[in-house]
Amino acid sequence: MPAIAGDLGYPNDLTSPAPYLAVGPGPYTRRHLWLPERPRVNEPTDDLAQLLSRIALRDRAAFARLYRLTSSHLLGVAWRITLRREQAEEVLQEAFVSVWQHAGSYQRAIACPMTWLINIVRNRAIDGLRAHREEMARTHALDDDTIDLPADPTTEPPQLLAASIAKLGLDRCMASLSAPQRQAVALAYYRGLPHGEIAETLAAPLGTVKAWVRRGLDKLKTCLGDDPAAEGAA
Amino acid sequence: MNYLHPPRLEALARDYAVGTLRGRARRRFERVLRDAPQARRVVEAWQQRLARLADVVPAAAPRDAVWAHIETRLFGQTTPAPALQQGATSWWGRWLPVGPRSGPAGAGLVLGVLAGAVLAVAALRWQPPWAAQVGLEAAGPGLPAAYVGILSDAQGKALVLASSRRQGQVLTIKWLQPAYQLPAGQVARLWAMGKEGGPAIPVGQLPAGPGPGTLQLPAASEAIFAKVDRLAVSLEPADAPPPAAPTQPFLAEGPCAKLW
């Protein structure tokens, strides 16, 4: 296991807004759903880390600023998993309460701030989703009517994965992955689905789906390079 | 099963980080993570990789009420709207007699202490991933806390949660009211009170909080707490040498129990 160097940041190619995000005033911007501007990626990593260290010292202004800079992105991540805005907002709320309480434990040597925040949100969303499903299963069948994540073919999980791969410059390296393998990875990461539900969605046997996710992720690891500390330079 | 066998650890870390590791297997692995730094490093490497996939997710601005609720929960400022409040109280907030939902103080305190002890074990055994990764608890060989104390202030609100592993040398402290701050120039000192009465035994100085912290015990937890059934905290002058007995009234006190 190689040592993980400090100050891991998003590499430079991720700090400029992606061209496909620079869409004009579409239906989503009108409804204030998507923000064309993504302050989180324009914010230098160190600033977020500094905010976290100030939050650990109970600086409420820093906490408010961190929220302003990151909450939209984090809500986007959570909403894709919960599919319901209200639940995603609850996840976000829980996550930020936890951030205030645990900011002192954030270690910049281990993760960049955004990674740390995304982990908190994804884990909350995945845990919350399970609790929600159990509750729904007890009361009534899972009700698709309450899903309010806007349907948009360009932001379906496979398209998001494709966009990521392109943005990271991994097209060639990931070319050997089949479409189902990519779909399985995309559903696992962006939707936070367990193997069983991925198998249902893709109408494939469970064992096959497990292998798809495994192979897809292992390929991603190979393509990114084994040492995440070196990725910024890659 | 040896979770730390490299290929197995790599696979578990990958499945944990992406989220496909579920249910009991997920909880088991979280316990491994809590105690094994090398396992945390493998997970963190995976999380670092996967976080790069999140960058393309369309952002969505939360409604203003979300921030208002966060502030209310942490700082108790504004009156929350009921819609988001429902189901959004933290897990210990539902049980401990703190915050706006406090019932009658007496019943609330008893319920809080009992539920708190149970939840403390649950939290230490089933520590959620975000807590495991931030190192809330000093690592031990996969054991839950053996001693737990919940100290409440004069109004009956739980203020401090203290826990230690069997034979542990570290007491983990959590201040349960994030807004509470120690007065300037004072430190909080922890005292242990024996079952047979007698003078309070000094345990040490509490971390200032409000976040979680630890207190280095002067001896193994067994030696200190085996015959103790109450803990208390007093505020003492920061610039004076540690007193042998409390010189100030107790800020908070409460039962201390051995869980197993």
Explain briefly what this protein structure is.
The complex is a heterodimer of chains A (234) and B (260). By secondary structure, chain A is mostly helical. Chain A is 62% helix and 0% strand.
Walk me through this protein's architecture:
The complex is a heterodimer of chains A (234) and B (260). Chain A has 234 residues and is mostly helical. Helix content of chain A is 62%, strand content 0%. Chain B is α+β, with helices and mostly antiparallel strands and 260 residues long. Chain B is 34% helix and 23% strand. Chain B contains eight helices and eight strands; from the N terminus they run αααααααββββββαββ. In chain B, β1 and β2 form a beta hairpin. In chain B, α1 crosses α3 and α2 (23-35) crosses α3. Chains A and B meet through α4, α5, α6, α7 and α9 of A and α1, α3, α4 and α7 of B.
Tally of individual domains of chain A: 2
* Major sheet characteristics of chain B: 8 strands, antiparallel
CATH fold topology of the largest domain in chain B: Immunoglobulin-like
Number of domains of chain B: 2
Report the major sheet of chain A.
none
Q: What's the order of the H and E elements of chain B?
A: HHHHHHHEEEEEEHEE
Cα-atom Rg of chain B, whole angstroms? Answer: 20 Å
First-last Cα distance of chain B? 24 Å
Shape of chain A: globular
